[in-house]
Amino acid sequence: MVRLLKRQGVPYMLMGGMALAVWGRSRFTHDVDLAIALPEKEFPHFLEVLKKAFFLPAPPRPMLGSRLIACRYLKPSKGLPVQVDLLLARGIYQEQALQRAVTVSLGSLHLRVVSPEDLILLKLLAGRPMDELDVLAVLQEQAKTLDRKYLKHWARHLGLAKQLSALSGKAPRFFP
């Protein structure tokens, strides 16, 4: 998927459980989550590109003020089929998060990964109990390097200030 996005010139960032492994801790995840910046007019063509590359996209559904496309990679291979969820980034916050993504090398592959601050905010927006545990892991592992000013600003703007404050109190190394 990353190679396809790069060939198509589609800005992206890795999110979710895979990004958590970069910034916090490893945990099992059954899918790969990516945010992409794709103009609305290019959406139909992009769906056709996905299909030609052995991805079967499901109809988009609403998520986090945007649209989510779940794709199953259908090319025959060994192992389990891969589920890739594409979040179509919309709005000032999601566009800024895409711009702030960090390039991480995994062997010969260079991936754009959501920043730790934006991973925290996106996990708070999702709001599941598992996401709160993920936020705690990132707060603890990245305590010395987090941009607290950015994090607090967007937490207020997104209506997440109370959740961030509550979880920050549970992460002893976040506020030394």
What is the total tally of β strands? 8
CATH class label: Alpha Beta
| Helix/strand class | alpha+beta
CATH architecture assignment name: 2-Layer Sandwich
| Model regions low in confidence, pLDDT < 50 over at least 5 residues | none
Helix coverage percent of residues? 40-55%
* SS field, number of helical segments: 8
Principal-axis shape: globular
Q: Write down the domain tally.
A: 1
Brief overview:
The chain is about 45% helix and about 25% strand. The protein is α+β, with helices and mostly antiparallel strands and about 180 residues long. The chain has a single domain (about 1-170), classed as Beta Polymerase, domain 2 (2-Layer Sandwich), CATH 3.30.460.40.
Description:
- This protein is an alpha+beta fold.
- It has helices at 2-8, 16-23, 43-52, 91-100, 116-126, 129-141, 148-157, 161-170; strands spanning 12-15, 31-36, 55-57, 61-63, 66-73, 82-88, 102-106, 109-113.
- Strands 1, 2, 3, 4, 5 and 6 form a 6-stranded mixed sheet that branches.
- β4 and β5 (66-73) form a beta hairpin.
- α2 (16-23) packs across α5 (116-126), α5 runs antiparallel to α6 (129-141) and α5 runs parallel beside α7 (148-157).
- It is globular and about 50 Å long.
